[in-house]
Amino acid sequence: MADDEPHIGRIVKTKLEQGPFRVTLVFDGAEALEALRMHADIKLVLLDLMMPQLTGLEVLAAMRADPRWSSLPAVILTAAGQDQRYDEAMRLGASDFITKPFSPKRLYARIAELTGVEEGGDYAAAGVAP
Question: Cys bridge to 78: 26, 82, 102, 113, which one at CB 3.0-4.6 A?
Fold first, then answer.
């Protein structure tokens, strides 16, 4: 999970790790790409839209240009008021676009769906790895 707001990352990490997911937290777009290079077991990526170094959309574009990550599910998280970036995110291949504040329970369910994890399954998630 890449988000420059540490408290958001901690909330998501806590919720996902209550289930079968393992979460790697990074705080900017460059760290997100580095985490992908370092952890081959990542099954899904959560990207904040606005981050230092590289934006979530720039990370997504880099992912889609690399055969290793071109089909890896990627969810864009964004603050309210940035919904105009939805079309660009979908064009770049985002799996979903979720506006903050969001329900951690709803996010968990969506990640489980995208990674093929059933409730109580044995998996790790992204900078989420099932």
Answer: 82
Q: Which residues of 12-39 are buried (b: 16+ CB within 10 A; e: fewer)?
A: bbebbeebbbbbbbbbbbbbbbebbeee
Residue 118 in any domain: the answer is: yes
pTM of the model: 0.86
pLDDT of 58 reads 97
User: What's the gap between Cα 97 and its chain centre?
Assistant: 10
**Total count of domains within the chain:** 1
Residue 118 — very low, low, confident or very high, per pLDDT cuts 50/70/90? low
Give the DSSP letter string of 90-105: HHHT-SEEEEES--HH
pLDDT above 90 covers a percentage of the chain that reads 72
